[in-house]
Amino acid sequence: MIHGILNVYKEKGFTSHDVVAKLRGITGQRKIGHTGTLDPDAEGVLPVCLGRATKLCDMLTDRDKTYEAVLLLGRVTDTQDISGEVLETRDTSGLSRESVERAIEGFVGRYDQIPPMYSALKVNGRKLYELAREGKEVERKARTVWIYGIDILEADLPRVRMRVQCSKGTYIRTLCHDIGEKLQCGGCMEELTRTRSGRFSAETSLTLAQIARMSGQGNLTDALIPMDAVFGDCPAFTVKKNWETTAKNGNPLPRRAFDGLSEEEGCPQKKVRIYTGDGQFISVCQWQEEKEEYHILKMFYVSE
Questions:
Q1: What CATH number has the domain bearing residue 293?
Q2: What does each C-alpha distance from 88 to 76, 91, 162, 181 come to in angstroms?
Q3: HSE-CB for 234 with a 13 A CA cutoff
Q4: What is the pTM (predicted TM-score) of this model?
Q5: Euclidean distance between CA atoms 8 and 49, whole angstroms
Q6: Overall number of domains in the chain
Q7: Residues forming the active site
């Protein structure tokens, strides 16, 4: 079985689930999971986890993201993007670049966003998009997200191309809709590309065709990102030989379990990567001050 992460560039026309299905066919294994849904009309970075790396899916989904989007002002749709049914068109002739820039800049920072009806969020066990397709609309609670920055790349009104850096859970089409409402002319998302998800960027991503070609040539492993690379900001600790079984069983580890770390040293790093003496990645652990031990956050070792 293959274990690691593929930085996939999802092309238009594919759902995130389509990507997983295609990769199952390419790799011949079922244990694969993606790390954040992209709509079929959107494209860009979609990290996909294989084998033991599927334990990382929830952690990678939580990372900040960067998008490039085209906002089309003057059009309101039921899905908040260009693919939806047009509900209203409004005049945009009175807009100026300055007024549009001010409205967009007003969304930088904390942003209480109401999720769209056409989304996979669940209310009372039903996905919102299922209810929307039945013509139903239900009340949704606003969720706090963060917009770290918006750069206007091009403004040819009524279209604005912008780069958005944001926290997890941000709906860019809802941001486009809300900017349009603030300008009192309406708006929807015309294009969307995710250029970054955490440490994964579009520049180093691979299309499904490229991955299939590498697999056919027998060098797919060259494209795999090791699981421990995700935790590159955490120091690496090597467990002593007589503590390896304890570490592999997921038990707590005191200072004395590690090479180069004495019992007399001050408080260790809060999160660390744990390895065997021969470099095998075991787990990510977190220091618990009250017990003076490292406790497992994520276990990656599996006995073969």
A1: 2.30.130.10
A2: 5, 10, 23, 12
A3: 21
A4: 0.87
A5: 10
A6: 3
A7: 39
